[in-house]
# Entry
Amino acid sequence: MFDLWQVVLKAWNFLAEPFSFEFILRAFASALIVGTLCAVTGSFLIVRRLSLLGLVVSNSVIPGVAIAFLLSLNIFVGGFLSGVLATLALSWLQLKTRIKEDAAMGIVMAVFFSLGIILITEIQKTKKVDLNEFLYGNILGITYPDLFTSLGIGVVALVIVYVLFRQLVLLSFDPLWTEAVGLPANRLHYTLMALISLTVVASMQAVGVVLTIALMIIPGATAYLITKRFATMIKVAMGLGVVSSIVGLYISFYLDIPSGPSIVMVSAVLLLATIFLGPLVRRLPWQALYDRIYGVVVLKDETVPNTAALERADKE
# Structure
């Protein structure tokens, strides 16, 4: 009994030790915000097969951040406007030229990312700026103003998703039907892209613009393997995002490694565990559990009728 108590005490000390530092408390709060927000917006990208578009937006906020820094403006506003501008530039290329969608994405991402690197390099000549913090984040350096800003952005984004959830789900599963029933498909698309931009600027201080897309896509992809209900997929992705962020922070704290990459690697491990352990879960005898989690793991695409998917999303 005494040995068991010692084990429990050591486990408690292990979990509680990081919280003796105030900057760790801020980091954990930021991780909760980022893990939740990235999972929600990333789930829409997964079902729309627009993961590359998320990568474009995430890399396109850098010029806006750099320009805002030069003009002594709020870098969150600059990053958001830059992400929206990149989305508009992508749409213009697709509408006004014969360039295919994937090529247009590559062009916009390359141009905006290169411009951002040039601007940051010029800034570094006169001011002390760490480029790595823009690219890979520094969640341990989160300040209270940064934390409250991220929280405000996260709340706004999640409220928009909640209000427009049915419309965004319909757009994600069937854009043509969205237009047929009279909904503004283009406006909803740009709203979703604006939400992606908000997600990136809210997360860039924590995990950086390069790793934000990983935190948006990997938990959502893992949840996609676990459930066939979209509303459930979002909830599972949120849980995975939060767990990845918290576990990644613990690993970063005790092993003294960068926090952003640590969080992403934990997400990747959870994805691999889902893939390799999935067949074992499918053999469980409890049919109710199987029906709920839907045959983990789906290693091939299974087409679900759009109407049925929407009905399930509505019931959730």
About this structure: Residues 184 and 218 are 29 Å apart (CA to CA). The chain has 14 helices and no strands. Residues 185-226 form the longest helix (42 residues).
